[in-house]
Design goal:
CATH topology of the largest domain: Rossmann fold
CATH superfamily of the largest domain: P-loop containing nucleotide triphosphate hydrolases
Mean pLDDT: 83
Number of strands: 8
Strand order of the largest sheet: 5-4-6-3-7-8
Order of helices and strands: HEEHEHEHEHEHHHHHEHHHHEH
Largest sheet: 6 strands, parallel
Structural class: alpha/beta
Number of domains: 3
Number of helices: 15
Low-confidence stretches: 33-76
CATH class of the largest domain: Alpha Beta
Radius of gyration: 28 Å
Strand content: 5-15%
CATH architecture of the largest domain: 3-Layer(aba) Sandwich
Distance between the termini: 75 Å
Length: 380
């Protein structure tokens, strides 16, 4: 009888233990399933600074990082690991030529980060590559705005990230190319743009028309010396924006620029060139634009409303030719002024990009592409 009782107790204990173990195993399986579902959902729609990033169309099986090997699902995909390559530097240094070589070698697509090449019809004065010169390499964010539209770095940020995410999702390499420093940072960095107020902006723009950019720049220098140092005294659009932000937020405009922190894995390549050589190339480029028919291009764009475009009408070359067409300058003066203004702009570009410690600078000239590819391969 005692033996029977003992056997009964043992069986009962074994059954209880079995049930407990079964319940625990089921709970673990449920938790793993929930984690996997959450991973899929997060991968499908990821939000970074209010910008929706598109994940790859299908999962790609790759060797996971050593920290992820024990997880129930792949925590990385090839698209997530693929870096964005940014080719930056001053005007006329050779960025476009380098971007084509990188695109052909790395299976990439070019994303424009030149604020003036966003405008339709502004081809000669922005040195926009022709279809033939692109040699079959896909180019994005060219000719997306009419010349009457005011530039918007915030809108560019949305568009550029959608394009970059799409390129990565197709397992291609995004190659961001341009000399507009703010637009490069808008595409790749944790940059948030303060709000705007139409009434405040309109008042500042009327004042700009009345007193000119120098007066407003002096006011900006008193309110925010750091912002004034970073903005050309003749860049009325950016001066107005800085003053608008200061008035609306009560904080310096320079405080809106964050630390150098990217939202993507980024490899930044800067094309460096000695100043005398760069000055010579600027003069040659402006002369070539004149030979190609920049004056006729500006005439066509004037009929399309260029003079009414708050941003496009101030572009280098276009602003000077408009003054020639208005009878203020001779054609010779307009192109001489374009060279002078472009050289000043080049110095601002160099100063902007040199402040970014993430840029790997490469001397222009023979071997540029080989050195650039070596840097990409070492950092990828």
């Amino acid at each position: 009888m005692v033996v029977v009782v003992i056997l009964f107790v043992v069986v009962e204990v074994v059954l209880v233990v079995f049930v407990v173990v079964l319940v625990v195993e089921v709970e673990v399986l449920v938790i793993q399933l929930v984690v996997e579902v959450e991973f899929v959902v997060l991968g499908w729609h990821v939000e970074i600074i209010g910008v929706r990033h598109v994940s790859p169309k299908r999962w790609v099986t790759i060797r996971p990082h050593r920290l992820c090997r024990d997880l129930p699902c792949a925590c990385q995909t090839e698209a997530m690991l693929r870096p964005v390559i940014a080719v930056v530097g001053p005007t006329a240094a050779g960025k476009s030529e380098l971007s084509l070589t990188l695109a052909r070698t790395l299976g990439g697509e070019v994303v424009n980060a030149d604020s003036m090449q966003l405008y339709q019809g502004m081809d000669i004065g922005t040195a926009k590559l022709t279809e033939a010169e692109r040699a079959g390499v896909p180019h994005h964010l060219l000719d997306i705005w009419p010349v009457t539209k005011a530039a918007s770095a915030a809108e560019y940020q949305l568009r550029s990230r959608r394009v970059i995410d799409d390129i990565r999702a197709r397992r291609r390499t995004p190659i961001l190319v341009g000399g507009s420093g703010l637009y490069v940072r808008a595409a790749i960095d944790k940059l948030q743009f303060p709000g705007t107020d139409a009434e405040v902006r309109a008042g500042l723009e009327r004042e700009l028309e009345r007193v000119g950019p120098a007066v407003l720049h002096a006011r900006l220098a008193a309110l925010d010396p750091a912002a004034a140092a970073a903005i050309l005294p003749g860049n009325g659009r950016r001066i107005v924006r800085a003053l608008e932000v200061i008035e609306l937020s009560g904080q310096p405009f320079s405080a809106t620029l964050p630390a150098y922190e990217s939202v993507y894995r980024v490899i930044q390549l800067g094309v460096a060139m000695p100043r005398p050589e760069l000055d010579r190339r600027v003069a040659e480029r402006v002369d070539r634009m004149r030979q190609l028919g920049l004056v006729d291009e500006v005439r066509r764009l004037e009929r399309a409303g260029l003079r009414d475009g708050f941003t496009a009408s101030r572009a280098l070359g276009y602003a000077q030719v408009l003054r020639f067409l208005a009878g203020d300058w001779t054609e010779e003066t307009a192109f001489a002024q374009t060279i002078t203004a472009t050289r000043r702009f080049v110095r601002r570009q160099e100063s902007w990009f040199r402040r970014d410690p993430r840029v790997s600078w490469i001397p222009a000239g023979a071997g540029l592409a080989e050195r650039a590819l070596a840097i990409v391969r070492s950092q990828a």
